[in-house]
Design a protein that fits this description.
- The chain contains three helices and two strands.
- It is mainly alpha-helical.
- It has one domain.
- The chain has a two-stranded antiparallel sheet with strand order 1-2.
- The longest helix is centred in the last third of the chain and has 20 residues, at 48-67.
- The chain is flat, with a radius of gyration of 13 Å.
- The termini are far apart.
- The mean pLDDT is 84.
Length: 80
């Protein structure tokens, strides 16, 4: 799910999610997000529950964006 390279927008800390990733997030079910969170969490230094929560939130944002014909952008920040 997260193996695509995202091109930065004019603000170097903002990326637009690729349409293929948005489509996967829209149709992702909890079991699939569980599996992705298990493999993704160690790669990004998160615990499973935090990674799963992020995926659920991204999935909800993707569904909302698609229903409004919008895109999804993420701002990349450093941990506090």
């Amino acid at each position: 799910m997260f193996n695509e390279v995202w091109a930065p927008l004019p603000d170097d800390n903002v990326v637009e999610l690729p349409p293929a990733l948005i489509a996967q997030l829209v149709k992702a079910d909890p079991a699939r997000m569980h599996d992705v969170a298990l493999s993704w969490a160690p790669l990004v230094g998160m615990g499973f529950h935090e990674a799963f929560a992020h995926l659920v939130e991204l999935s909800q944002l993707a569904r909302t964006a698609v229903s409004r014909a919008d895109t999804v952008c993420l701002e990349i920040t450093s941990p506090a």
